[in-house]
Protein backbone atom coordinates (compact mmCIF):
# COMPACT_ATOMS: atom_id res chain seq x y z
CA UNK A 1 0.00 0.00 0.00
CA UNK A 2 1.20 3.53 -0.71
CA UNK A 3 -0.06 6.89 0.52
CA UNK A 4 -0.30 9.37 -2.34
CA UNK A 5 -2.29 12.47 -3.31
CA UNK A 6 -5.49 11.57 -5.15
CA UNK A 7 -4.16 13.00 -8.39
CA UNK A 8 -1.87 10.00 -8.75
CA UNK A 9 -4.95 7.75 -8.76
CA UNK A 10 -7.73 9.83 -10.28
CA UNK A 11 -8.60 12.95 -12.20
CA UNK A 12 -11.34 15.47 -11.59
CA UNK A 13 -13.10 18.50 -13.04
CA UNK A 14 -15.17 21.15 -11.33
CA UNK A 15 -17.99 23.46 -12.33
CA UNK A 16 -20.38 25.92 -10.68
CA UNK A 17 -24.08 26.51 -10.34
CA UNK A 18 -24.98 29.46 -8.18
CA UNK A 19 -23.04 29.19 -4.91
CA UNK A 20 -22.38 25.48 -5.37
CA UNK A 21 -19.56 23.63 -7.02
CA UNK A 22 -19.63 20.09 -8.26
CA UNK A 23 -16.44 18.10 -8.64
CA UNK A 24 -16.10 14.84 -10.51
CA UNK A 25 -13.63 12.24 -9.26
CA UNK A 26 -12.75 9.60 -11.82
CA UNK A 27 -10.10 6.96 -11.08
CA UNK A 28 -7.75 6.23 -13.96
CA UNK A 29 -8.24 2.53 -13.20
CA UNK A 30 -11.83 1.43 -12.59
CA UNK A 31 -10.59 -1.07 -9.96
CA UNK A 32 -9.80 1.93 -7.72
CA UNK A 33 -13.49 2.88 -7.47
CA UNK A 34 -14.27 1.06 -4.21
CA UNK A 35 -11.10 1.93 -2.30
CA UNK A 36 -11.59 5.61 -3.17
CA UNK A 37 -15.19 5.35 -1.99
CA UNK A 38 -14.01 4.14 1.42
CA UNK A 39 -11.52 6.96 1.87
CA UNK A 40 -12.88 9.98 0.02
CA UNK A 41 -15.89 10.50 2.24
CA UNK A 42 -18.23 13.49 2.19
CA UNK A 43 -16.87 14.43 5.62
CA UNK A 44 -13.24 14.61 4.43
CA UNK A 45 -14.27 16.61 1.38
CA UNK A 46 -16.26 19.05 3.51
CA UNK A 47 -13.17 19.56 5.69
CA UNK A 48 -11.25 20.61 2.56
CA UNK A 49 -13.68 23.44 1.88
CA UNK A 50 -14.82 24.50 5.35
CA UNK A 51 -12.53 27.56 5.31
CA UNK A 52 -14.62 28.94 2.45
CA UNK A 53 -17.91 28.52 4.29
CA UNK A 54 -19.00 25.24 2.68
CA UNK A 55 -21.98 23.87 4.61
CA UNK A 56 -22.57 20.40 3.12
CA UNK A 57 -21.13 17.88 0.71
CA UNK A 58 -23.25 15.29 -1.07
CA UNK A 59 -21.45 12.44 -2.80
CA UNK A 60 -23.20 10.76 -5.72
CA UNK A 61 -21.77 7.32 -6.51
CA UNK A 62 -21.79 6.21 -10.15
CA UNK A 63 -20.45 2.64 -10.08
CA UNK A 64 -21.46 1.84 -13.68
CA UNK A 65 -18.96 4.42 -14.94
CA UNK A 66 -16.58 4.11 -11.94
CA UNK A 67 -16.88 7.77 -10.94
CA UNK A 68 -18.05 10.03 -8.10
CA UNK A 69 -19.69 13.42 -8.21
CA UNK A 70 -19.29 15.66 -5.17
CA UNK A 71 -21.69 18.57 -4.77
CA UNK A 72 -20.37 21.18 -2.34
CA UNK A 73 -22.91 23.71 -1.03
CA UNK A 74 -22.16 27.39 -0.35
CA UNK A 75 -18.47 27.11 -1.23
CA UNK A 76 -18.07 29.94 -3.75
CA UNK A 77 -18.40 32.88 -1.33
CA UNK A 78 -21.35 34.21 -3.29
CA UNK A 79 -20.87 32.63 -6.71
CA UNK A 80 -19.50 33.96 -9.95
CA UNK A 81 -21.48 37.22 -9.95
CA UNK A 82 -20.43 38.40 -6.50
CA UNK A 83 -17.29 36.50 -5.45
CA UNK A 84 -14.01 38.41 -5.04
CA UNK A 85 -11.98 35.28 -5.83
CA UNK A 86 -10.08 35.31 -9.14
CA UNK A 87 -11.68 31.94 -9.83
CA UNK A 88 -15.32 32.75 -9.25
CA UNK A 89 -16.44 29.55 -10.99
CA UNK A 90 -14.36 27.35 -8.70
CA UNK A 91 -12.82 25.58 -11.69
CA UNK A 92 -9.50 25.18 -9.83
CA UNK A 93 -11.13 23.48 -6.82
CA UNK A 94 -10.87 20.04 -8.43
CA UNK A 95 -7.17 20.19 -7.61
CA UNK A 96 -7.82 20.94 -3.96
CA UNK A 97 -9.71 17.64 -3.91
CA UNK A 98 -6.93 15.92 -5.89
CA UNK A 99 -4.38 16.94 -3.21
CA UNK A 100 -6.16 14.81 -0.60
CA UNK A 101 -4.07 11.84 0.61
CA UNK A 102 -5.31 8.30 0.01
CA UNK A 103 -3.73 4.95 0.84
CA UNK A 104 -4.09 2.47 -2.02
CA UNK A 105 -2.36 -0.60 -3.53
CA UNK A 106 0.52 0.63 -5.73
CA UNK A 107 -1.01 -1.10 -8.75
CA UNK A 108 -3.90 1.39 -8.75
CA UNK A 109 -1.64 4.37 -9.46
CA UNK A 110 -1.67 5.88 -12.95
CA UNK A 111 2.12 5.56 -12.97
CA UNK A 112 2.98 2.80 -10.48
CA UNK A 113 6.65 3.91 -10.55
CA UNK A 114 5.53 7.04 -8.67
CA UNK A 115 5.07 4.91 -5.56
CA UNK A 116 8.85 4.77 -5.11
CA UNK A 117 9.34 8.48 -5.73
CA UNK A 118 6.36 10.14 -4.08
CA UNK A 119 8.37 12.93 -2.48
CA UNK A 120 7.97 15.65 -5.18
CA UNK A 121 4.23 15.61 -4.64
CA UNK A 122 4.49 15.63 -0.85
CA UNK A 123 4.40 19.44 -0.57
CA UNK A 124 1.04 19.58 -2.33
CA UNK A 125 -0.60 17.04 -0.06
CA UNK A 126 -3.44 17.52 2.32
CA UNK A 127 -2.71 15.12 5.21
CA UNK A 128 -5.13 12.36 6.04
CA UNK A 129 -7.45 13.36 8.89
CA UNK B 1 -27.65 5.25 -12.79
CA UNK B 2 -30.61 3.12 -13.82
CA UNK B 3 -34.31 3.64 -14.34
CA UNK B 4 -34.13 7.25 -15.57
CA UNK B 5 -37.61 8.42 -16.59
CA UNK B 6 -39.11 11.50 -18.17
CA UNK B 7 -42.12 13.58 -17.22
CA UNK B 8 -44.51 16.07 -18.79
CA UNK B 9 -42.99 19.36 -19.89
CA UNK B 10 -43.19 22.04 -17.18
CA UNK B 11 -45.86 24.75 -17.38
CA UNK B 12 -43.41 27.34 -16.15
CA UNK B 13 -39.92 28.12 -17.48
CA UNK B 14 -36.87 29.35 -15.64
CA UNK B 15 -36.08 32.98 -16.39
CA UNK B 16 -32.76 34.49 -15.41
CA UNK B 17 -32.94 38.27 -15.14
CA UNK B 18 -29.89 40.54 -14.97
CA UNK B 19 -29.47 43.64 -12.81
CA UNK B 20 -26.72 46.13 -12.16
CA UNK B 21 -24.43 44.45 -9.62
CA UNK B 22 -22.10 47.22 -8.46
CA UNK B 23 -18.38 47.34 -9.24
CA UNK B 24 -15.35 45.09 -8.87
CA UNK B 25 -12.11 46.95 -8.15
CA UNK B 26 -8.79 45.11 -8.46
CA UNK B 27 -5.26 46.30 -7.77
CA UNK B 28 -2.04 44.31 -7.98
CA UNK B 29 1.63 44.75 -7.09
CA UNK B 30 4.64 42.42 -7.20
CA UNK B 31 7.40 41.64 -4.72
CA UNK B 32 10.45 39.51 -5.54
CA UNK B 33 13.75 38.34 -4.16
CA UNK B 34 14.90 37.71 -0.57
CA UNK B 35 12.02 37.66 1.92
CA UNK B 36 9.45 38.01 -0.87
CA UNK B 37 6.83 36.14 1.15
CA UNK B 38 7.28 38.22 4.31
CA UNK B 39 7.09 41.46 2.31
CA UNK B 40 4.03 40.17 0.45
CA UNK B 41 2.41 39.38 3.81
CA UNK B 42 3.15 42.94 4.95
CA UNK B 43 1.48 44.31 1.80
CA UNK B 44 -1.51 42.02 2.43
CA UNK B 45 -1.87 43.40 5.98
CA UNK B 46 -1.40 47.05 5.03
CA UNK B 47 -3.93 47.22 2.17
CA UNK B 48 -7.11 46.48 4.20
CA UNK B 49 -5.89 48.82 6.96
CA UNK B 50 -5.49 51.65 4.45
CA UNK B 51 -9.02 50.99 3.16
CA UNK B 52 -10.32 51.07 6.72
CA UNK B 53 -8.63 54.38 7.54
CA UNK B 54 -10.00 55.97 4.38
CA UNK B 55 -13.51 54.83 5.26
CA UNK B 56 -14.18 53.41 1.80
CA UNK B 57 -17.40 51.42 1.63
CA UNK B 58 -16.04 48.21 0.18
CA UNK B 59 -15.86 44.48 0.86
CA UNK B 60 -12.21 43.47 0.42
CA UNK B 61 -10.03 40.42 -0.10
CA UNK B 62 -6.27 39.98 -0.59
CA UNK B 63 -4.53 37.22 -2.55
CA UNK B 64 -0.87 36.20 -2.71
CA UNK B 65 -0.81 34.90 -6.27
CA UNK B 66 1.54 31.92 -6.42
CA UNK B 67 1.05 31.18 -2.70
CA UNK B 68 -2.62 31.43 -1.75
CA UNK B 69 -5.29 32.76 -4.06
CA UNK B 70 -7.87 30.67 -5.90
CA UNK B 71 -8.10 27.99 -3.19
CA UNK B 72 -8.20 30.53 -0.36
CA UNK B 73 -11.19 32.16 1.35
CA UNK B 74 -11.99 35.87 1.52
CA UNK B 75 -10.62 35.96 5.07
CA UNK B 76 -7.22 34.55 4.00
CA UNK B 77 -7.26 31.35 6.08
CA UNK B 78 -4.85 29.51 3.77
CA UNK B 79 -2.57 32.55 3.49
CA UNK B 80 -2.12 32.65 7.26
CA UNK B 81 -1.63 28.89 7.48
CA UNK B 82 0.92 28.72 4.64
CA UNK B 83 4.30 27.48 5.85
CA UNK B 84 5.94 26.40 2.59
CA UNK B 85 9.23 27.66 1.18
CA UNK B 86 9.86 31.30 0.26
CA UNK B 87 8.75 31.83 -3.35
CA UNK B 88 10.99 33.77 -5.78
CA UNK B 89 8.18 36.24 -6.53
CA UNK B 90 4.67 36.96 -5.32
CA UNK B 91 1.95 39.01 -6.99
CA UNK B 92 -0.31 40.59 -4.38
CA UNK B 93 -3.88 41.21 -5.47
CA UNK B 94 -6.49 43.36 -3.74
CA UNK B 95 -10.10 42.83 -4.81
CA UNK B 96 -13.02 44.93 -3.61
CA UNK B 97 -16.75 44.98 -4.21
CA UNK B 98 -18.40 48.41 -4.01
CA UNK B 99 -21.76 49.90 -4.88
CA UNK B 100 -20.13 52.96 -6.46
CA UNK B 101 -17.51 53.10 -9.21
CA UNK B 102 -15.61 55.76 -7.28
CA UNK B 103 -15.21 53.68 -4.09
CA UNK B 104 -14.03 50.68 -6.13
CA UNK B 105 -11.58 52.87 -8.06
CA UNK B 106 -10.19 54.61 -4.96
CA UNK B 107 -9.68 51.28 -3.22
CA UNK B 108 -8.02 49.61 -6.21
CA UNK B 109 -5.60 52.55 -6.55
CA UNK B 110 -4.30 51.94 -3.03
CA UNK B 111 -1.79 49.49 -4.51
CA UNK B 112 -0.04 52.41 -6.25
CA UNK B 113 0.73 54.12 -2.94
CA UNK B 114 2.75 51.08 -1.84
CA UNK B 115 5.45 51.70 -4.46
CA UNK B 116 6.66 54.66 -2.40
CA UNK B 117 5.37 54.02 1.11
CA UNK B 118 4.98 50.23 1.28
CA UNK B 119 7.55 47.49 1.93
CA UNK B 120 10.84 47.87 0.02
CA UNK B 121 10.92 46.58 -3.55
CA UNK B 122 7.17 46.69 -4.20
CA UNK B 123 6.44 47.39 -7.88
CA UNK B 124 4.44 46.80 -11.00
CA UNK B 125 1.16 48.32 -9.86
CA UNK B 126 -1.89 47.83 -12.07
CA UNK B 127 -5.51 48.52 -11.23
CA UNK B 128 -8.89 48.37 -12.92
CA UNK B 129 -12.60 48.65 -12.19
CA UNK B 130 -15.15 46.38 -13.84
CA UNK B 131 -18.93 46.81 -13.64
CA UNK B 132 -20.71 43.68 -12.47
CA UNK B 133 -24.02 42.09 -13.33
CA UNK B 134 -26.14 40.34 -10.71
CA UNK B 135 -28.61 37.67 -11.75
CA UNK B 136 -31.78 36.34 -10.17
CA UNK B 137 -33.83 33.40 -11.35
CA UNK B 138 -37.62 33.23 -11.56
CA UNK B 139 -40.30 30.94 -12.93
CA UNK B 140 -42.53 32.39 -15.67
CA UNK B 141 -45.67 31.06 -17.32
CA UNK B 142 -44.65 29.31 -20.55
CA UNK B 143 -47.40 31.11 -22.47
CA UNK B 144 -45.78 34.49 -21.78
CA UNK B 145 -42.54 33.49 -23.50
CA UNK B 146 -42.01 33.75 -27.24
CA UNK B 147 -38.63 32.33 -28.30
CA UNK B 148 -36.59 34.74 -30.44
CA UNK B 149 -32.88 35.38 -30.90
CA UNK B 150 -31.10 38.62 -31.70
CA UNK B 151 -27.45 38.68 -32.68
CA UNK B 152 -25.48 41.91 -32.31
CA UNK B 153 -21.76 42.64 -32.51
CA UNK B 154 -20.03 44.01 -29.42
CA UNK B 155 -19.26 47.22 -31.36
CA UNK B 156 -22.98 47.86 -31.79
CA UNK B 157 -23.45 47.81 -28.03
CA UNK B 158 -20.46 50.13 -27.53
CA UNK B 159 -21.79 52.69 -30.02
Please, could you describe this protein's structure?
The complex is a heterodimer of chains A (129) and B (159). Chain A is an alpha+beta fold and 129 residues long. Chain A is built from four helices and seven strands, in the order ββββααββαβα. In chain A, the strands form two sheets. In chain A, strands 2, 3, 4, 5 and 6 form a five-stranded antiparallel beta sheet that branches. Chain A has a two-stranded antiparallel sheet with strand order 1-7. Chain B has a four-stranded antiparallel beta sheet with strand order 2-3-1-4. The relative contact order of chain B is 0.29. By secondary structure, chain B is of the alpha+beta class. The longest helix of chain B has 19 residues, at 36-54. Chain B has five helices and four strands, in the order E-H-E-H-E-H-H-E-H. Chain A binds chain B through residues 51-53, 62, 64, 77, 81-82, 84-87, 92-93, 96, 123, and chain B through 1-2, 21, 24, 59-61, 63, 65, 69-75, 77-78, 84, 93, 95-97, 132-135.
Summarize this structure briefly.
The complex is a heterodimer of chains A (129) and B (159). In chain A, 18% of the residues lie in helices and 28% in strands. Chain A is α+β, with helices and mostly antiparallel strands.
Q: From N to C, what is the helix and strand string of chain A?
A: EEEEHHEEHEH
Low-pLDDT stretches of chain A are none
Q: Helix amount of chain A, in percent?
A: 10-25%
Class based on secondary structure composition and strand pairing of chain A: alpha+beta
| Tertiary shape of chain B | elongated
Oligomeric state of shown chains: heterodimer
- Helical segment tally of chain A? 4
Estimated structural class of chain B: alpha+beta
Q: Beta-strand level of the residues of chain A, as a percent range? A: 25-35%
Lateral arrangement of strands in the main beta sheet of chain B:
2-3-1-4
What does the radius of gyration of chain A come to?
15 Å
